[in-house]
Design brief:
single chain; two-stranded antiparallel ribbon; 2 helices; globular
Length: about 70
Amino acid sequence: MNKLSKDDELALAALRRAVPNALERKRRLGHYAVVWRDGQTVRLSPEQIGSAEEYVSEASAPPSAVREPGPDD
């Protein structure tokens, strides 16, 4: 697997934080969501979305991807 650049790691970390929030918002508003599961796209009803905690996975993120950028970045 190719090593991600620092910018790519920061972008990936931002997405990992944003997705659970977006899914939670869709669920609360009664909107459907489309996610990737088992190699295919799946449309979820608001009832199927579940809670935001189900989509948080810092364990799968490289340690350098979950840090916030500092003043020197």
